[in-house]
Design goal:
Length: 123
């Protein structure tokens, strides 16, 4: 990893505001000499096409990623779409790093632990 070769990260999202999603990037920005490219884009959901359009948009965003950060808190809120993103990531042979619930207010679900290459806490 270097400024010329940053890590390409996709963070799970549900095309809606999520404090943990933004917190990930605040944390990464505060880490010295950590260079990354954000491959996820929750601010631009597909205009139409229903679930299939959403799935296609997730696959397109994942296409350029090297690693996927799975937010355990988002999984607890929106299991369907986070599971889809994990399925698509694993189909593309991308490792899943599960990030526990901020503040440790809930346990990481067993399904996430089972599928993760690594489970980490916020600190």
């Amino acid at each position: 990893m270097s400024e010329k070769n940053p890590i390409r990260i996709f963070v799970t999202h549900a095309f809606a505001g999520n404090p943990d999603y933004h917190r990930v990037f605040e944390y990464l920005e505060s880490t010295p000499n950590f260079f990354y490219v954000n491959c996820s884009s929750p601010d631009h959901p597909p205009a139409g096409g229903g679930k299939e359009a959403i799935k296609e948009e997730y696959r397109a965003q994942l296409k350029n990623a090297e690693v996927v950060v799975v937010l355990a808190s988002l999984y607890l809120e929106n299991e369907y779409w986070v599971t889809y993103q994990m399925d698509a990531a694993q189909a593309a042979n991308l490792p899943l790093i599960v990030l526990g619930v901020f503040g440790g207010t809930a346990d990481v679900p067993a399904e996430l632990k089972k599928r993760a290459a690594e489970v980490i806490d916020w600190n």
